[in-house]
Design brief:
Strand order of the largest sheet: 1-2
Largest sheet: 2 strands, antiparallel
Number of strands: 2
Radius of gyration: 39 Å
Structural class: mainly alpha
């Protein structure tokens, strides 16, 4: 048994190939016997032909015993393969059960006779002993699960434990009451998310350096993920879908999910409207003069940098961003650079003008006028989409 079990426990390719051959042998046996019975029945219809008066046990007995042996070997292989997942489960206390599993595997592999020889009756005793040990192992696993669910676990923690153990033995372990525990905890989570949404929806906490629209949408998505992960797990459990508790949870989930999706759509649509305003803002003149003080100011609509700052975050989140806004975002650094240069230019100009002594101001008017003339394109002609801003705005006025 050592060679065979070492092979199928360490090599998935060998295991799959062996199980395939097992199925082929069983199928061959079935077809062989069907053919035998079909021919025998046909011969019975004709009394002149020699009849099949052979012993079926004599013909098929050994093949039947061999196939039954193959089925038991396949059962052992599948059982050990399913339980091998124990080594990948990172839950406190599982190591003792895994050590027990390793002991069973070691004892099974230590048999030296040929397991494919159906005449070796030692296998039958070893197979019964294997089943008994595996049953004890599953009982230990059931007690392990029960003990964990007696602790104050989060919904996500409960689900993660169940997902890992379901792969091991969903038919051997009873998870029904565990599913109901998840439903009860999940229903409380839905209520907490609903209250949290009502409390924070107008001013949700935003991640550091995150622009407001993207931050609010990300906040809503985090709440949605908190309620969606358990639902993805529970909706596949057909045995609990029709329970009153689950029906209540589904209603609460649908209501909360609808609210969060609507929240996201509301802010995304609002941003798209602002994006249209920002696009129009880029067509405004670079500079504007205060109607009373006559001072010059940089005329960049504040919605422009706000909208452009949102683009990369919204795009990463998979939200629709108009092509024209994506094009604007490619020029965002250039727009910011021009804004900074214009602000510095106006600040330097205003500082120089303010520092002119009152006695010299009449003499400096011609020079100030030439500077004003040089800035006139920014008031009249140039917009934030112009290609010749540097050439027109950042040149020395002519003497």
């Amino acid at each position: 048994m050592l060679v065979l079990l070492n092979g199928f426990s360490s090599c998935d390719v060998f295991r799959e190939e062996f199980l395939q051959k097992v199925q082929e042998c069983i199928h061959l046996n079935e077809q062989y016997q069907k053919c035998f019975h079909r021919v025998r029945e046909r011969l019975k219809e004709s009394s002149n032909d020699r009849q099949f008066e052979f012993s079926e046990n004599y013909i098929f007995g050994k093949f039947d015993m061999f196939c039954k042996r193959l089925e038991k070997i396949a059962d052992m292989m599948n059982t050990m393969d399913n339980l091998s997942v124990l080594q990948h489960i990172r839950v406190e206390g599982i190591d003792k059960i895994y050590l027990r599993y390793q002991t069973i595997v070691f004892n099974t592999k230590s048999k030296t006779y040929d397991v494919l020889d159906h005449r070796k009756q030692e296998f039958e005793k070893d197979y019964l002993d294997f089943q008994y040990q595996i049953e004890g192992l599953y009982q230990a696993l059931q007690s392990f699960v029960d003990s964990w669910f007696e602790q104050p676990l989060t919904t996500e923690r409960m689900i993660n434990i169940l997902i890992k153990l379901e792969h091991i033995g969903k038919t051997q372990l009873d998870f029904t009451d565990k599913y109901m525990a998840v439903i009860q905890r999940y229903n409380r989570d839905l209520d907490l998310v609903r209250k949290l949404y009502q409390k924070q929806k107008d001013n949700p906490p935003l991640p550091r350096n995150m622009p407001p629209v993207s931050g609010k949408i990300m906040w809503a998505r985090q709440l949605f993920r908190k309620i969606d992960y358990p639902m993805k797990f529970l909706r596949n459990k057909t045995e609990i879908l029709k329970t009153p508790e689950m029906k209540k949870v589904i209603r609460n989930y649908n209501n909360m999910a609808s609210v969060l999706v609507e929240f996201e759509l509301l802010y995304h649509r609002g941003w798209c409207k602002c994006a249209d305003i920002a696009r129009s803002g880029l067509l405004a003149s670079l500079l504007v003069r205060h109607p009373e003080t006559k001072e010059l100011y940089v005329n960049l609509d504040p919605t422009v940098p706000e909208v452009l700052n949102e683009v990369k975050y919204l795009d990463k989140m998979g939200l629709e961003v108009p092509d024209i806004i994506i094009h604007m975002h490619r020029n965002a650094q250039e727009i910011k650079k021009q804004e900074t240069k214009l602000k510095n230019l106006l600040q330097d100009y205003q500082t120089v003008v303010n520092n002119i002594p009152a006695l010299l101001q009449p003499l400096m008017k011609p020079f100030i006028g030439r500077v004003e003339d040089a800035l006139t394109p920014g008031l009249m002609m140039l917009t934030w989409t112009s290609l010749n801003i540097d050439k027109c705005m950042f040149k020395s006025p002519s003497n």
